[in-house]
Amino acid sequence: MPLSEQANTSRGNAIYIIAGGRGTIFRVYVADLGLRDASVADVQPPLINLPYTFPKNVSRIADDFLTNEELKITSFDAPELVRLIREKSYTCEAVTRAFLRRAALAQKVVNCITELLPERTIARARYLDSLPEPLDHFMAFRYQSRNTRA
C-alpha cells in the first residue's frame, strides 16, 4: 500500500496515512481539515505575515508573532494564572485570547490541532469575567502531577 492514498468514503474524500511501525492507518477527512482550518482562522486578532515555510527549529517562533503581553500570559503555569485572574491582574478573556493565538500559531507551524472552537471559549471566558465572584471549582485549582496518588 502506498504511503498515502486518496479514497472515496461515505464522508467524502479521505486521505489515508500509514503511521507507526505496525502499519496503523489513520483517516484524515478533507472536510475535517477544512473545519479545523476555519476554526484557526477565526482567532482574533489574526496571525498575519506568517511565512509559508518555517525554520527547522521553531521553539522561539512565538517571539516573532505574539505580543509581549501574550508571551507573558502564556508563560505562566496554571496555578499562577488562576491566582492572577482571581486578583484581577488578567481577565479570563485576555488569557483565553492569548492561548488561542498561541495555539493557532502552533497549528500553522507544526500542524498539531484538531479544532480550536474560539467562539465557544471566548463566550465562556466572558461569562466567567461577568461573575461577581469567581466560581469555586474554577478558582480552587490545585496543581497535582499525574504521578500523585490520591
TrEMBL record:
InterPro entries on file: AS_sf (IPR036928)
Family: Belongs to the amidase family.
Protein name from the UniProt record: Uncharacterized protein
Species this chain originates from: Venustampulla echinocandica
Organism lineage: Eukaryota, Fungi, Dikarya, Ascomycota, Pezizomycotina
